[in-house]
Structure prediction request, 376 residues.
Amino acid sequence: MLSAYRPGRIQAGARSATRALLVAAVSTACGSTSAAFDTEYPDRVILLIGDGTGVAQWSAGLYAAGELAVAGFPVVGLVDTRNMFGKITDSGAAATALATGVPTFNRGIGVGPDSAALESVCDAAELFGKATGLVVTSSVVHATPASFVAKVPDRYRYESIAEQLAGSSLEVLLGGGLQFFDAEWRTDSWDLLGALRARHVFVENEEGLLALNPDTVSSLVGLFALDDMSPASERHPSLALMTQVALAVLDHDSEGFFLMVEGSQIDWRGHENAPIDELAAEVLDFDAAITVAVEYASRRPGTLIVVTGDHETGGLALVSDGDGFAASYSHTSHTAELVPLFASGPGAERFTGIQTNAQVGQALLDLIRSTNPPAD
Prediction:
């Protein structure tokens, strides 16, 4: 059985010790900061995407908690988030670029500018015999997770995306979106839940997730809400717990794996121009999942961790508010700001400097393809 993992609840007095442990874990995983690039190719790749997360969002999390897991990463870069045809991307175009290495149009999912299907990093990982997984706090059919598996020209074709996810080779799928698989809710009455239950261990709540023995689970689907999961302060299971379980299941694959983890609702708090404490709670829920990834990598030195955003949302600035600070937004939508990227582990040197989102995606594909020969 697993214990609930909620590092975001660490008390302030313990944060210095936590910071030291995280730096030690990153150093162990990489050999040391100065020798972070001794191994060229990773066996396991963990991509963590903070939807809508720019510098100001990370700053809000840092000031709220005092420490961030990404502080120990030896590589820091910036990502140009523009889409194929304009400066303001949506999550479909941005995630497709990260997943496939090809820039595309807004609302496109896993397709190029001509709407032709593209090979994603999940597709490549499966071709090379690796396990794959997606973990999100939105519905699993939302733009970011969908872009790593589905191929549709419009991100809002949720039922089609659900069909493709249900028919995919994913070993792990965790998040919300039960209604898009349930015959009672689908417009075509197709029972995709039955197909998922036939091929995977299936859970619907935190209790079911905690009761699992990961040593006995080779594939797992967890759908914890009809649509999107609750905000961070009410979310069960947390993103950190879902990530912990996903890694425990994917770790069984001797060829390695690719896992994408999304802190989906940082973006939504930006769209809402939410108060700073609500925004920071989402950032810290995401950062707690990064802590889980770092601790995993400390036990599996061939693990690459890449953390970035797909775009910035809200035009957030942190301004004085008497004794503290408050959120000041310039917009309720996405902006063209560069977003930070953090990387550690073998291959991390590919992510330095300023790159486009498509260049980041191409680097991920190159690293996956260079690890093993394709499976027969």
About this structure: The two ends are 35 Å apart (CA to CA).
